Amino acid sequence: MKKILYILLLLPFLSFAQTKKPNIIIILADDLGWGDVGYHGSTIKTPNIDKLSKDGVILNRFYAAPICSPTRAGLLIGRYPNRVGIRETTIPPWSDFGLDTEEVTLPDVLTQAGYTNRAIIGKWHLGHNTLQYHPMRRGFTHFYGHLNGAIDYFTHKREGEVDWHNDYEPSKDKGYSTNLLSDEAVKCIKQYSKESAPFFMYLAYNAPHGPLQAPDEDLIQNGFDPAKGRFSGTEGGDESAESGNLGHGNTPKQTYAAMVTNLDKGIGRVLKTLKDQKIDDNTLILFMSDNGAAGNGAVNSHGELRGYKFEEWEGGVRVPAIVKWPSAGLVGGKQIEQVMGYIDVLPTFKAIAGVTAPSKLPLDGINMWPVLSGKTSHIDRQFYLGHGAIIDGDWKLIKDLGIKKMRMTDGDVLSHIPPDYSEKENLRTSNPEMYKKLLKEVAPYEAIEAKEEILSKGPKKGFKAPKDWKITKEK
């Protein structure tokens, strides 16, 4: 009788424990290719990412936009980025463009659910000219990192000025940027874990995006021999480095591998800190890349896939992705084949956080928790990849829009994925009805017109970056 009474008294507390909102961490890698992680067969050792894939659920058909700023926009607003004029390019340093301030962001949504600490640590790349675009005006309570893309990893400079910040102020912190971001993430986790409210962290690494630079200890781990000298010049996407050949290995490929090694170590430190603070069980982690491998394979890998960054082939838009949340019953080692992606993050996390208020603007993303949790085996959906490309189930269409970057020689391409992950066979002629169906489906997405598109607002010539990239203008 006493035992029964004890259980009855304990039930309310057990219920609370089971429904307690998770801490949420998004770990975003920059330009990490499908074939650059160990669990996809990479020659680069990524033990911490591989462990995450074993402890969590592999999202085998997770899609991003084919380039950085569009993915970061869609991730935060749950809507296709062409709705806000961020379609084919990133926001350049000399632009006054930014993410539309009418958009509701993921940290805005989580504010409604009691997430009092909402940090962005790393690369913003969604507007830097006026304060209205600053991340702390877009729902975040803390910002540590850089506003632009492609900064020098050691000097933190872009266009001759240091782009490194702590909240609204320039930061003078010295060190390799990936290490500094990992340090800040660890510090924040330790701080936030002491509070009763759940926290949200968007850890947006700039690695392994160029310029190609790595600490010597990671270069040595990847076979660096000082006697052979360091590579020089802009080979391998090194054009934005402002510190000469600092951080170069013997070759660009070796340097890239060392950058991934350092990134993996940082992720390992984050995972260890969660465990040390005894909050790893109820922390929801999403790991993903912002697009596919950059370049032509000289330094990175798209694995079995076709294409690279900037392209809507699988190698440009299908990215490594893992989700982990032990207390919710996500079984480690499982692999999900459901088509999903970056625009689904906001609606999924919104549902998990228990926010029931309708969205201010219609979302393109779908709540994927029913599939992740196993309550639903599959959701039929279309997924627009941008620039004339769309997925409907296992069928994929890429329209030939005359873009040389796509290297299309036979017009529109219709593929069936799986089994043709490499998109070698064009099924357009043999499946005319499906081809017509997807042409009709992609048309409304292609017709979307934003109020304003990203423009360089004039050539780079004559541009002078603001001192320490400090934002002072309101509008």
TrEMBL record:
<protein>
    <submittedName>
        <fullName>Arylsulfatase</fullName>
    </submittedName>
</protein>
<dbReference type="InterPro" id="IPR000917">
    <property type="entry name" value="Sulfatase_N"/>
</dbReference>
<feature type="signal peptide">
    <location>
        <begin position="1"/>
        <end position="17"/>
    </location>
</feature>
<dbReference type="InterPro" id="IPR050738">
    <property type="entry name" value="Sulfatase"/>
</dbReference>
<dbReference type="Pfam" id="PF00884">
    <property type="entry name" value="Sulfatase"/>
</dbReference>
<keyword id="KW-0732">Signal</keyword>
<comment type="similarity">
    <text>Belongs to the sulfatase family.</text>
</comment>
<dbReference type="InterPro" id="IPR017850">
    <property type="entry name" value="Alkaline_phosphatase_core_sf"/>
</dbReference>
<dbReference type="GO" id="GO:0004065">
    <property type="term" value="F:arylsulfatase activity"/>
</dbReference>
<feature type="region of interest" description="Disordered">
    <location>
        <begin position="228"/>
        <end position="252"/>
    </location>
</feature>
<feature type="domain" description="Sulfatase N-terminal">
    <location>
        <begin position="22"/>
        <end position="355"/>
    </location>
</feature>
